[in-house]
Structure prediction request, 194 residues.
Amino acid sequence: MVSIRKRGAVYGVIGLMLCVAVYLNWSYFQSPDELTIADQTMEEDSDASSVYGEVTAVDSVDSKAGGSDETASESSNSDYFAQARLSRQTARDEALTMLRETVSSEDSTEDAKAEASQQITVIAGYTVKEERLESQLKAKGYTDAVVYISDDTISVVVASPDGGLTSADAASISEMVTSETGAKTSMLRISEAK
Prediction:
């Protein structure tokens, strides 16, 4: 009975951490001061949102900096991507630590150990796919990109290309992500950091 409670507590904490990570990601992108909608033409074509997922632009430049200084903009962009990667890695490290504790615990049942091992494998797979996609996006010409894969969503944030993110860019990114992950396009959230 105690091992069931411990296993439930471990899974509860892992679920809570994932929820917190998703909430922080959502709240960061939903801040009214930092969020603008890219390519209003996407709204005209109602099928586009179901084909390419959600496309938004994130303005990561501090409004006090003025945004006109190109160096400040590049610095802010790189800070955003570095912070996003750090947040993603921190959340994953915490989840992996708890899963490893479950696997190595003598009090854990074999089912709990097997499930924890499976979750570790899933997280490792997500990490590899995220890094591969980020490299592919950089190879496509985006100066920086960060990808976050979870069970039900895939968030892709790219550095804003000249002229902004177009429908063609969104289609290219969508095709790249779906071919790499096998995910449905409805799971995709594509954003640009300006």
User: Anything to note?
Assistant: Confidence is low (pLDDT under 50) at residues 30-72. The chain has six helices and five strands. The CA atoms of residues 43 and 69 lie 32 Å apart.
